[in-house]
Amino acid sequence: MASEDVFILGIKMTKFGKHKELDTVDLATEATLAALADGGVTMKDMNIISAGNLMGGALPIAQVIQKACGQTGIPAYNVSNACATGATALRVVGMSIKAGESDFGLAVGVEKLAGAGLLAGGSRKSDGKSWERSGRYGAVAGVDGRIGTDIMPGVFAQIGMEYGHKYGGANFELFAEISRKNHFHSTLNPLAAYTKEMSLEQIMGDIMIAYPNTRPMCSANCDGAAAAVLVSGSKLKTLSQQQQRRAVKVSASILTSDPYEEACQVLPNVNTLTRAAAKQAYEQAGVGPEDLDLVELHDCFATAELVHYDNLMLCEEGNAVDFFKSGATWRTGSMPVNVSGGLQSKGHPIAATGIANVWEVCHHLRGEAGPRQIEGAKVGLAHVIGLASACGVHILESNTA
Amino acid sequence: MSDSIPFVNYLVLGDDPHLVAQECKACGARFFDRRNACAGCSGTEFQSVDVPTQGELRTFTIVAFAAPGIEVPFVSGIVDCGGTSVRANIVNVEPSPEHVKLGMPVKLTTFPIGKDEEGVEAINFGFEPAA
Ligand SMILES: [Zn+2]
Protein backbone atom coordinates (compact mmCIF):
# COMPACT_ATOMS: atom_id res chain seq x y z
CA MET A 1 0.00 0.00 0.00
CA ALA A 2 1.30 3.39 -0.98
CA SER A 3 1.79 5.78 1.91
CA GLU A 4 -0.71 8.60 2.32
CA ASP A 5 -0.27 12.00 0.75
CA VAL A 6 -0.23 14.81 3.29
CA PHE A 7 -2.01 18.14 2.91
CA ILE A 8 -2.21 21.30 4.96
CA LEU A 9 -5.89 21.87 5.60
CA GLY A 10 -5.70 24.89 7.88
CA ILE A 11 -2.84 27.13 8.92
CA LYS A 12 -2.43 30.44 10.76
CA MET A 13 0.18 32.61 12.38
CA THR A 14 -0.47 35.30 14.96
CA LYS A 15 0.80 38.81 14.54
CA PHE A 16 4.52 38.73 15.37
CA GLY A 17 5.85 41.42 17.70
CA LYS A 18 5.52 42.48 21.33
CA HIS A 19 2.43 41.01 22.94
CA LYS A 20 2.61 42.47 26.44
CA GLU A 21 -0.86 41.26 27.39
CA LEU A 22 -0.58 37.75 25.93
CA ASP A 23 1.34 34.85 27.41
CA THR A 24 2.58 31.66 25.74
CA VAL A 25 -0.76 29.92 26.25
CA ASP A 26 -2.73 32.85 24.80
CA LEU A 27 -0.58 32.95 21.68
CA ALA A 28 -0.55 29.18 21.15
CA THR A 29 -4.32 28.99 21.63
CA GLU A 30 -4.95 31.86 19.25
CA ALA A 31 -2.93 30.18 16.50
CA THR A 32 -4.41 26.75 17.21
CA LEU A 33 -8.06 27.80 17.14
CA ALA A 34 -7.45 29.94 14.06
CA ALA A 35 -5.77 27.06 12.22
CA LEU A 36 -8.62 24.69 13.11
CA ALA A 37 -11.21 27.25 11.95
CA ASP A 38 -9.20 27.86 8.77
CA GLY A 39 -9.40 24.14 8.05
CA GLY A 40 -13.07 23.86 8.96
CA VAL A 41 -12.38 21.27 11.66
CA THR A 42 -12.25 21.14 15.46
CA MET A 43 -9.98 19.78 18.14
CA LYS A 44 -12.25 16.68 18.29
CA ASP A 45 -11.18 15.78 14.74
CA MET A 46 -7.45 15.73 15.58
CA ASN A 47 -5.75 12.36 16.01
CA ILE A 48 -2.33 13.70 17.05
CA ILE A 49 -0.75 16.92 18.28
CA SER A 50 2.90 17.90 18.12
CA ALA A 51 4.12 21.20 19.53
CA GLY A 52 7.26 23.07 20.49
CA ASN A 53 8.26 25.97 22.71
CA LEU A 54 11.86 26.66 23.69
CA MET A 55 11.94 29.64 26.02
CA GLY A 56 8.94 28.96 28.26
CA GLY A 57 10.69 26.59 30.65
CA ALA A 58 10.01 22.89 30.73
CA LEU A 59 6.32 23.14 29.79
CA PRO A 60 4.91 20.14 27.96
CA ILE A 61 3.50 22.66 25.52
CA ALA A 62 1.35 20.19 23.58
CA GLN A 63 -0.57 19.27 26.73
CA VAL A 64 -0.68 22.92 27.79
CA ILE A 65 -2.39 23.71 24.48
CA GLN A 66 -4.80 20.82 24.96
CA LYS A 67 -5.67 22.05 28.44
CA ALA A 68 -6.27 25.53 27.00
CA CYS A 69 -8.52 24.51 24.13
CA GLY A 70 -9.37 20.85 23.96
CA GLN A 71 -8.31 17.74 25.91
CA THR A 72 -9.31 14.78 23.80
CA GLY A 73 -6.82 12.17 24.91
CA ILE A 74 -4.84 12.03 21.65
CA PRO A 75 -1.08 11.34 21.58
CA ALA A 76 0.93 14.50 22.27
CA TYR A 77 4.50 14.91 21.05
CA ASN A 78 6.56 17.73 22.52
CA VAL A 79 9.46 18.55 20.22
CA SER A 80 12.58 20.65 20.57
CA ASN A 81 14.97 21.28 17.67
CA ALA A 82 16.18 24.87 18.13
CA CYS A 83 15.01 27.09 15.25
CA ALA A 84 13.78 24.00 13.40
CA THR A 85 11.31 23.14 16.18
CA GLY A 86 8.20 24.23 14.28
CA ALA A 87 9.25 22.34 11.17
CA THR A 88 9.91 19.29 13.35
CA ALA A 89 6.42 19.46 14.86
CA LEU A 90 4.97 19.67 11.36
CA ARG A 91 7.01 16.71 10.23
CA VAL A 92 6.04 14.55 13.21
CA VAL A 93 2.36 15.04 12.36
CA GLY A 94 3.06 14.42 8.67
CA MET A 95 4.87 11.16 9.46
CA SER A 96 1.96 9.94 11.53
CA ILE A 97 -0.43 10.64 8.64
CA LYS A 98 1.92 9.00 6.14
CA ALA A 99 2.13 5.95 8.37
CA GLY A 100 -1.64 5.68 8.32
CA GLU A 101 -1.98 6.25 12.05
CA SER A 102 -3.79 9.59 11.78
CA ASP A 103 -6.27 11.25 9.42
CA PHE A 104 -5.89 14.69 10.97
CA GLY A 105 -3.13 16.22 13.07
CA LEU A 106 -2.17 19.53 14.63
CA ALA A 107 1.30 21.12 14.75
CA VAL A 108 1.99 24.22 16.85
CA GLY A 109 5.02 26.40 17.59
CA VAL A 110 4.97 29.29 20.04
CA GLU A 111 7.50 31.64 21.62
CA LYS A 112 7.64 34.64 23.95
CA LEU A 113 10.90 36.31 23.06
CA ALA A 114 10.32 40.06 22.89
CA GLY A 115 13.01 41.89 24.82
CA ALA A 116 15.35 38.90 24.95
CA GLY A 117 18.94 39.95 24.47
CA LEU A 118 21.60 38.25 22.43
CA LEU A 119 21.14 34.54 22.27
CA ALA A 120 24.38 32.85 23.15
CA GLY A 121 25.31 29.26 22.51
CA GLY A 122 26.94 28.47 25.84
CA SER A 123 26.70 29.51 29.44
CA ARG A 124 29.21 31.78 31.04
CA LYS A 125 30.68 31.52 34.48
CA SER A 126 32.55 34.12 36.40
CA ASP A 127 36.16 33.67 37.40
CA GLY A 128 36.31 31.94 40.77
CA LYS A 129 38.55 32.11 43.83
CA SER A 130 40.99 29.65 42.41
CA TRP A 131 41.05 28.34 38.86
CA GLU A 132 38.99 25.25 38.41
CA ARG A 133 38.58 23.35 35.17
CA SER A 134 35.16 22.53 33.89
CA GLY A 135 33.47 21.36 30.75
CA ARG A 136 34.77 19.32 27.89
CA TYR A 137 37.58 21.73 27.06
CA GLY A 138 38.73 21.84 30.64
CA ALA A 139 38.46 25.64 30.58
CA VAL A 140 39.14 27.65 33.73
CA ALA A 141 36.58 30.30 32.72
CA GLY A 142 33.90 30.75 30.09
CA VAL A 143 35.29 30.33 26.58
CA ASP A 144 32.71 32.61 24.91
CA GLY A 145 34.56 35.80 24.05
CA ARG A 146 37.93 34.37 25.13
CA ILE A 147 38.22 31.67 22.51
CA GLY A 148 36.08 32.99 19.69
CA THR A 149 32.40 33.76 20.02
CA ASP A 150 29.25 31.86 20.87
CA ILE A 151 26.81 34.66 20.17
CA MET A 152 24.55 33.84 17.23
CA PRO A 153 25.14 37.10 15.29
CA GLY A 154 28.87 36.34 15.49
CA VAL A 155 28.59 32.68 14.56
CA PHE A 156 26.47 33.48 11.51
CA ALA A 157 28.68 36.44 10.61
CA GLN A 158 31.56 33.98 10.35
CA ILE A 159 29.44 31.62 8.26
CA GLY A 160 28.70 34.40 5.76
CA MET A 161 32.24 35.75 5.76
CA GLU A 162 33.56 32.24 5.13
CA TYR A 163 31.39 32.05 2.00
CA GLY A 164 32.75 35.43 0.96
CA HIS A 165 36.30 34.19 1.46
CA LYS A 166 35.67 31.05 -0.54
CA TYR A 167 33.93 32.63 -3.51
CA GLY A 168 34.61 36.37 -3.26
CA GLY A 169 32.35 39.35 -3.74
CA ALA A 170 30.55 39.33 -0.41
CA ASN A 171 31.10 42.43 1.67
CA PHE A 172 29.34 44.50 4.32
CA GLU A 173 27.35 46.42 1.71
CA LEU A 174 26.13 43.27 -0.03
CA PHE A 175 24.92 41.73 3.22
CA ALA A 176 23.23 45.02 4.14
CA GLU A 177 21.51 45.06 0.76
CA ILE A 178 20.05 41.60 1.47
CA SER A 179 18.66 43.04 4.68
CA ARG A 180 17.26 46.06 2.80
CA LYS A 181 15.33 43.66 0.55
CA ASN A 182 13.72 41.86 3.47
CA HIS A 183 12.83 45.04 5.35
CA PHE A 184 11.30 46.36 2.12
CA HIS A 185 9.28 43.16 1.67
CA SER A 186 7.88 43.41 5.19
CA THR A 187 6.12 46.70 4.39
CA LEU A 188 3.45 44.58 2.69
CA ASN A 189 3.06 42.12 5.58
CA PRO A 190 0.68 43.33 8.31
CA LEU A 191 1.67 40.39 10.56
CA ALA A 192 5.39 41.26 10.53
CA ALA A 193 7.02 42.58 13.71
CA TYR A 194 8.60 45.42 11.73
CA THR A 195 7.04 46.86 8.61
CA LYS A 196 9.35 49.78 7.97
CA GLU A 197 11.44 50.23 4.88
CA MET A 198 15.11 50.92 5.67
CA SER A 199 17.75 52.52 3.48
CA LEU A 200 21.16 50.98 2.96
CA GLU A 201 22.64 53.89 4.93
CA GLN A 202 20.27 53.26 7.85
CA ILE A 203 21.08 49.56 7.90
CA MET A 204 24.85 50.00 7.64
CA GLY A 205 24.83 52.91 10.08
CA ASP A 206 22.82 51.10 12.75
CA ILE A 207 24.39 49.57 15.85
CA MET A 208 27.03 46.98 14.94
CA ILE A 209 26.38 43.69 16.74
CA ALA A 210 28.94 41.40 15.13
CA TYR A 211 30.57 42.63 11.93
CA PRO A 212 29.16 42.61 9.32
CA ASN A 213 25.76 42.13 11.02
CA THR A 214 24.26 45.34 12.34
CA ARG A 215 21.08 45.25 14.42
CA PRO A 216 18.55 45.34 11.53
CA MET A 217 20.55 42.54 9.86
CA CYS A 218 19.80 40.24 12.82
CA SER A 219 16.55 38.35 13.27
CA ALA A 220 14.04 40.25 15.36
CA ASN A 221 13.37 38.72 18.77
CA CYS A 222 9.61 38.79 19.16
CA ASP A 223 6.52 36.96 20.38
CA GLY A 224 4.34 34.87 18.17
CA ALA A 225 2.79 31.53 17.38
CA ALA A 226 1.83 29.52 14.32
CA ALA A 227 -0.24 26.38 13.94
CA ALA A 228 -1.15 24.01 11.14
CA VAL A 229 -3.78 21.31 10.67
CA LEU A 230 -2.67 18.46 8.44
CA VAL A 231 -4.90 15.91 6.74
CA SER A 232 -4.38 12.72 4.77
CA GLY A 233 -5.05 12.68 1.05
CA SER A 234 -7.80 10.08 1.36
CA LYS A 235 -9.56 11.96 4.15
CA LEU A 236 -9.32 15.22 2.21
CA LYS A 237 -11.33 13.63 -0.62
CA THR A 238 -14.28 13.30 1.77
CA LEU A 239 -14.27 16.99 2.69
CA SER A 240 -15.98 19.94 1.02
CA GLN A 241 -14.96 21.38 -2.35
CA GLN A 242 -13.75 24.54 -0.68
CA GLN A 243 -11.60 22.61 1.82
CA GLN A 244 -10.11 20.60 -1.04
CA ARG A 245 -9.45 23.68 -3.14
CA ARG A 246 -7.69 25.53 -0.32
CA ALA A 247 -5.69 22.53 0.85
CA VAL A 248 -1.97 22.75 0.12
CA LYS A 249 -0.07 19.60 -0.75
CA VAL A 250 3.04 18.84 1.28
CA SER A 251 5.08 17.47 -1.62
CA ALA A 252 8.19 17.06 0.51
CA SER A 253 8.89 17.12 4.22
CA ILE A 254 12.53 16.63 5.09
CA LEU A 255 14.57 16.90 8.27
CA THR A 256 18.34 16.49 8.41
CA SER A 257 21.07 16.89 11.02
CA ASP A 258 24.66 17.91 10.36
CA PRO A 259 26.98 15.15 9.14
CA TYR A 260 30.56 15.14 10.41
CA GLU A 261 33.04 17.20 8.43
CA GLU A 262 36.37 18.70 9.37
CA ALA A 263 35.76 21.98 11.28
CA CYS A 264 32.05 21.39 11.92
CA GLN A 265 32.61 21.20 15.67
CA VAL A 266 34.70 24.38 15.56
CA LEU A 267 32.26 26.51 13.53
CA PRO A 268 28.81 25.05 12.85
CA ASN A 269 28.50 23.96 9.25
CA VAL A 270 25.00 25.00 8.13
CA ASN A 271 25.73 24.12 4.51
CA THR A 272 26.03 20.33 4.53
CA LEU A 273 22.68 19.61 6.13
CA THR A 274 20.79 22.31 4.23
CA ARG A 275 22.10 21.10 0.88
CA ALA A 276 21.26 17.50 1.83
CA ALA A 277 17.75 18.47 2.92
CA ALA A 278 17.16 20.46 -0.27
CA LYS A 279 18.39 17.63 -2.45
CA GLN A 280 16.13 15.11 -0.72
CA ALA A 281 13.19 17.52 -0.85
CA TYR A 282 13.50 18.14 -4.59
CA GLU A 283 13.70 14.39 -5.17
CA GLN A 284 10.73 13.62 -2.95
CA ALA A 285 8.59 16.37 -4.52
CA GLY A 286 9.73 15.64 -8.05
CA VAL A 287 10.43 19.33 -8.65
CA GLY A 288 13.59 21.36 -9.13
CA PRO A 289 14.61 24.78 -7.87
CA GLU A 290 13.56 26.22 -11.24
CA ASP A 291 9.96 25.19 -10.51
CA LEU A 292 9.72 27.27 -7.32
CA ASP A 293 7.57 30.40 -7.38
CA LEU A 294 8.72 31.60 -3.95
CA VAL A 295 11.05 30.61 -1.13
CA GLU A 296 10.98 31.40 2.58
CA LEU A 297 14.44 30.63 3.89
CA HIS A 298 16.08 30.96 7.28
CA ASP A 299 17.59 34.45 7.20
CA CYS A 300 18.32 34.52 10.94
CA PHE A 301 21.06 36.97 9.90
CA ALA A 302 21.71 38.72 6.59
CA THR A 303 24.93 36.71 6.34
CA ALA A 304 22.93 33.47 6.51
CA GLU A 305 20.56 34.29 3.65
CA LEU A 306 23.43 34.47 1.17
CA VAL A 307 24.78 30.99 1.89
CA HIS A 308 21.32 29.42 1.69
CA TYR A 309 20.75 30.68 -1.87
CA ASP A 310 23.58 28.32 -2.67
CA ASN A 311 22.63 25.54 -0.25
CA LEU A 312 19.05 25.39 -1.54
CA MET A 313 20.48 25.33 -5.07
CA LEU A 314 18.57 28.46 -6.09
CA CYS A 315 21.76 29.45 -7.91
CA GLU A 316 24.86 27.75 -9.31
CA GLU A 317 27.32 26.60 -6.65
CA GLY A 318 29.52 29.52 -5.58
CA ASN A 319 27.33 32.03 -7.41
CA ALA A 320 25.13 33.40 -4.61
CA VAL A 321 26.61 36.91 -4.77
CA ASP A 322 25.91 37.39 -8.48
CA PHE A 323 22.54 35.70 -8.06
CA PHE A 324 21.52 38.24 -5.43
CA LYS A 325 22.98 41.14 -7.40
CA SER A 326 20.84 40.13 -10.39
CA GLY A 327 17.77 41.10 -8.36
CA ALA A 328 16.37 37.55 -8.54
CA THR A 329 15.39 37.35 -4.88
CA TRP A 330 13.39 40.57 -4.66
CA ARG A 331 9.62 40.06 -4.85
CA THR A 332 9.68 41.28 -8.45
CA GLY A 333 12.53 38.93 -9.37
CA SER A 334 12.64 35.44 -10.85
CA MET A 335 13.00 33.70 -7.46
CA PRO A 336 11.35 35.79 -4.72
CA VAL A 337 12.94 35.01 -1.34
CA ASN A 338 11.40 36.01 1.98
CA VAL A 339 8.55 38.10 0.65
CA SER A 340 7.19 37.95 4.22
CA GLY A 341 10.07 40.14 5.36
CA GLY A 342 12.00 37.15 6.63
CA LEU A 343 13.28 36.65 10.13
CA GLN A 344 15.03 40.01 10.01
CA SER A 345 11.82 41.99 9.66
CA LYS A 346 8.84 39.65 10.08
CA GLY A 347 10.51 38.39 13.24
CA HIS A 348 11.75 35.13 14.70
CA PRO A 349 9.78 33.67 17.62
CA ILE A 350 12.01 30.61 17.46
CA ALA A 351 9.67 27.63 17.79
CA ALA A 352 6.95 29.32 15.69
CA THR A 353 9.22 30.12 12.75
CA GLY A 354 9.17 26.69 11.09
CA ILE A 355 5.36 26.81 10.78
CA ALA A 356 5.08 30.55 10.13
CA ASN A 357 7.21 30.29 7.00
CA VAL A 358 5.05 27.41 5.76
CA TRP A 359 2.02 29.64 6.42
CA GLU A 360 3.56 32.38 4.27
CA VAL A 361 4.08 29.99 1.37
CA CYS A 362 0.54 28.52 1.74
CA HIS A 363 -0.90 32.03 1.79
CA HIS A 364 0.53 32.65 -1.69
CA LEU A 365 -0.32 29.19 -3.04
CA ARG A 366 -3.94 29.75 -2.01
CA GLY A 367 -3.92 33.14 -3.71
CA GLU A 368 -4.82 34.83 -0.42
CA ALA A 369 -1.76 37.01 0.17
CA GLY A 370 -3.41 40.28 -0.83
CA PRO A 371 -1.06 43.11 -1.79
CA ARG A 372 2.03 40.95 -1.41
CA GLN A 373 0.66 38.04 -3.46
CA ILE A 374 3.18 36.47 -5.80
CA GLU A 375 0.90 36.12 -8.80
CA GLY A 376 0.14 32.63 -9.94
CA ALA A 377 2.29 30.94 -7.29
CA LYS A 378 1.90 27.16 -7.52
CA VAL A 379 5.01 25.75 -5.81
CA GLY A 380 6.98 27.08 -2.85
CA LEU A 381 9.73 26.03 -0.46
CA ALA A 382 10.08 26.73 3.25
CA HIS A 383 13.44 26.24 4.96
CA VAL A 384 14.61 26.52 8.56
CA ILE A 385 17.80 25.67 10.33
CA GLY A 386 18.43 25.36 14.03
CA LEU A 387 21.97 25.26 15.33
CA ALA A 388 23.50 22.19 16.78
CA SER A 389 22.02 21.41 14.10
CA ALA A 390 18.72 20.56 12.41
CA CYS A 391 17.41 21.58 9.01
CA GLY A 392 13.81 21.37 7.89
CA VAL A 393 12.73 21.79 4.27
CA HIS A 394 9.11 21.63 3.11
CA ILE A 395 8.02 21.88 -0.50
CA LEU A 396 4.40 22.90 -0.90
CA GLU A 397 2.12 22.82 -3.92
CA SER A 398 -1.27 24.38 -4.52
CA ASN A 399 -4.17 21.99 -4.95
CA THR A 400 -6.21 24.17 -7.28
CA ALA A 401 -4.81 22.86 -10.55
CA MET B 1 55.26 24.52 41.69
CA SER B 2 53.63 26.04 38.68
CA ASP B 3 52.62 29.68 38.73
CA SER B 4 50.77 29.52 35.47
CA ILE B 5 48.27 27.16 33.95
CA PRO B 6 46.80 26.89 30.45
CA PHE B 7 43.32 28.32 30.00
CA VAL B 8 42.11 25.09 28.39
CA ASN B 9 43.36 21.51 28.48
CA TYR B 10 44.35 21.53 24.82
CA LEU B 11 46.84 24.37 25.19
CA VAL B 12 50.42 23.37 26.04
CA LEU B 13 52.60 26.12 27.56
CA GLY B 14 56.38 26.22 27.87
CA ASP B 15 59.07 27.40 25.44
CA ASP B 16 57.04 26.42 22.42
CA PRO B 17 53.34 26.98 23.19
CA HIS B 18 51.02 25.02 20.94
CA LEU B 19 47.65 23.31 20.75
CA VAL B 20 47.13 19.58 21.03
CA ALA B 21 44.26 17.81 19.30
CA GLN B 22 42.81 14.38 19.94
CA GLU B 23 43.12 12.56 16.65
CA CYS B 24 40.96 9.55 15.86
CA LYS B 25 43.27 6.61 15.18
CA ALA B 26 40.82 5.17 12.68
CA CYS B 27 39.86 8.13 10.50
CA GLY B 28 42.14 10.99 11.50
CA ALA B 29 39.38 13.37 12.61
CA ARG B 30 40.66 15.90 15.14
CA PHE B 31 38.91 17.25 18.21
CA PHE B 32 39.79 19.63 21.02
CA ASP B 33 37.28 18.48 23.61
CA ARG B 34 37.25 15.44 25.87
CA ARG B 35 36.01 12.60 23.68
CA ASN B 36 33.99 9.48 24.20
CA ALA B 37 34.13 8.50 20.57
CA CYS B 38 34.71 9.92 17.11
CA ALA B 39 31.96 11.93 15.42
CA GLY B 40 33.33 10.88 12.04
CA CYS B 41 33.54 7.11 12.44
CA SER B 42 32.49 6.27 16.03
CA GLY B 43 36.02 4.99 16.74
CA THR B 44 37.11 5.13 20.36
CA GLU B 45 40.89 5.29 20.13
CA PHE B 46 42.64 8.63 19.97
CA GLN B 47 46.18 9.92 19.95
CA SER B 48 47.43 13.38 20.91
CA VAL B 49 48.84 15.36 18.01
CA ASP B 50 50.46 18.78 17.92
CA VAL B 51 48.63 21.34 15.81
CA PRO B 52 50.73 23.71 13.66
CA THR B 53 51.01 27.15 15.24
CA GLN B 54 50.87 28.95 11.91
CA GLY B 55 47.70 29.24 9.91
CA GLU B 56 45.44 31.22 7.65
CA LEU B 57 42.41 33.22 8.79
CA ARG B 58 39.49 31.52 7.09
CA THR B 59 36.72 33.67 8.49
CA PHE B 60 36.13 36.23 11.21
CA THR B 61 33.66 38.54 12.86
CA ILE B 62 34.15 41.58 15.04
CA VAL B 63 31.97 41.18 18.10
CA ALA B 64 30.68 44.39 19.61
CA PHE B 65 28.43 42.97 22.35
CA ALA B 66 29.51 40.34 24.85
CA ALA B 67 29.14 39.13 28.41
CA PRO B 68 30.46 41.23 31.29
CA GLY B 69 34.22 40.82 31.66
CA ILE B 70 34.80 40.41 27.94
CA GLU B 71 36.42 43.40 26.32
CA VAL B 72 34.72 44.60 23.15
CA PRO B 73 35.11 44.93 20.31
CA PHE B 74 37.11 41.76 19.81
CA VAL B 75 37.84 39.66 16.75
CA SER B 76 36.66 36.05 16.68
CA GLY B 77 37.90 33.85 13.89
CA ILE B 78 38.51 30.41 12.49
CA VAL B 79 42.10 29.64 11.63
CA ASP B 80 43.11 26.89 9.23
CA CYS B 81 46.26 25.46 10.81
CA GLY B 82 47.54 23.15 8.11
CA GLY B 83 44.19 21.45 7.68
CA THR B 84 43.07 21.58 11.29
CA SER B 85 40.48 24.27 11.99
CA VAL B 86 40.93 26.19 15.22
CA ARG B 87 38.55 28.65 16.84
CA ALA B 88 40.19 31.60 18.57
CA ASN B 89 40.28 35.31 19.13
CA ILE B 90 42.46 37.25 16.71
CA VAL B 91 44.64 39.50 18.84
CA ASN B 92 47.32 42.17 18.53
CA VAL B 93 45.48 43.73 15.63
CA GLU B 94 43.09 46.64 15.51
CA PRO B 95 39.55 45.18 15.56
CA SER B 96 38.39 46.73 12.32
CA PRO B 97 37.67 45.33 8.85
CA GLU B 98 40.46 47.53 7.51
CA HIS B 99 43.02 45.62 9.55
CA VAL B 100 41.61 42.10 9.75
CA LYS B 101 41.65 40.43 6.36
CA LEU B 102 40.27 37.10 5.20
CA GLY B 103 43.09 34.78 4.25
CA MET B 104 45.74 36.63 6.19
CA PRO B 105 48.53 34.55 7.73
CA VAL B 106 48.40 34.34 11.51
CA LYS B 107 50.36 32.64 14.26
CA LEU B 108 49.61 31.39 17.73
CA THR B 109 50.41 33.61 20.67
CA THR B 110 49.73 33.33 24.40
CA PHE B 111 48.87 35.90 27.04
CA PRO B 112 47.79 35.99 30.69
CA ILE B 113 44.12 36.58 31.42
CA GLY B 114 44.35 36.99 35.20
CA LYS B 115 45.41 35.46 38.50
CA ASP B 116 43.36 33.58 41.04
CA GLU B 117 43.63 34.26 44.78
CA GLU B 118 46.58 31.90 45.08
CA GLY B 119 48.50 33.89 42.50
CA VAL B 120 48.23 31.31 39.77
CA GLU B 121 48.07 32.94 36.38
CA ALA B 122 45.83 31.50 33.65
CA ILE B 123 47.34 31.73 30.16
CA ASN B 124 45.08 31.85 27.13
CA PHE B 125 45.92 31.64 23.44
CA GLY B 126 44.95 33.62 20.39
CA PHE B 127 46.27 34.20 16.90
CA GLU B 128 48.05 37.35 15.75
CA PRO B 129 49.04 38.57 12.31
CA ALA B 130 52.21 36.74 11.22
CA ALA B 131 54.21 39.75 10.11
ZN1 LIG C 1 37.17 8.61 13.46
List keywords for this structure.
heterodimer, A: 401 residues, alpha/beta, Peroxisomal Thiolase, Chain A, domain 1, nine-stranded mixed β-sheet, two-stranded antiparallel sheet, 13 helices, globular, B: 131 residues, mainly beta, six-stranded mixed β-sheet, 10 strands, 0% helix, binds zinc ion
Please state the CA-atom Rg of chain A, rounded to the nearest Å. Answer: 20 Å
Compute the number of strand runs of chain A. Answer: 11
CATH architecture of chain A: 3-Layer(aba) Sandwich
Radius of gyration of chain B: 16 Å
Query: Which ranges of chain A are low-confidence, i.e. pLDDT below 50, for 5 or more consecutive residues?
Result: 121-126
Profile the largest sheet of chain B: 6 strands, mixed
* Average pLDDT of chain B: 96
Distance between the termini of chain B: 35 Å
- Helix percent of chain B reads under 10%
- Regions with little confidence, pLDDT below 50 for 5+ residues of chain B: none
**CATH topology call of chain A:** Peroxisomal Thiolase, Chain A, domain 1
Q: Name the strands of the widest sheet of chain B in spatial order.
A: 1-10-9-6-7-8
Give a verbal description of the structure.
The complex is a heterodimer of chains A (401) and B (131). Chain A contains 13 helices and eleven strands. With 401 residues, chain A is of the alpha/beta class. Chain A has one domain (6-115, 221-398): Peroxisomal Thiolase, Chain A, domain 1. The radius of gyration of chain A is 20 Å and the shape is globular. Chain A starts with 5 loop residues before the first strand and ends with a strand. The model of chain A is unreliable at 121-126 (pLDDT under 50). Chain B is mainly beta and 131 residues long. Chain B has one domain. Chain B contains no helices and ten strands. Chain B has strands at residues 4-6, 11-12, 18-24, 30-31, 46-51, 54-63, 74-81, 84-90, 105-115, 121-129. In chain B, the strands form two sheets. In chain B, strands 1-10-9-6-7-8 form a six-stranded mixed beta sheet, with no helix packed on it. In chain B, strands 2, 3, 4 and 5 form a four-stranded antiparallel beta sheet that branches. In chain B, strand 3 and strand 4 (30-31) form a beta hairpin. Chain B is globular and about 40 Å long. The model of chain B has no long low-confidence stretch (mean pLDDT 96). At the A-B interface, helix 4 and strand 5 of A face strand 4, strand 6, strand 7, strand 8 and strand 10 of B. The structure holds zinc ion. The site of zinc ion has 8 residues of chain B, from loops.
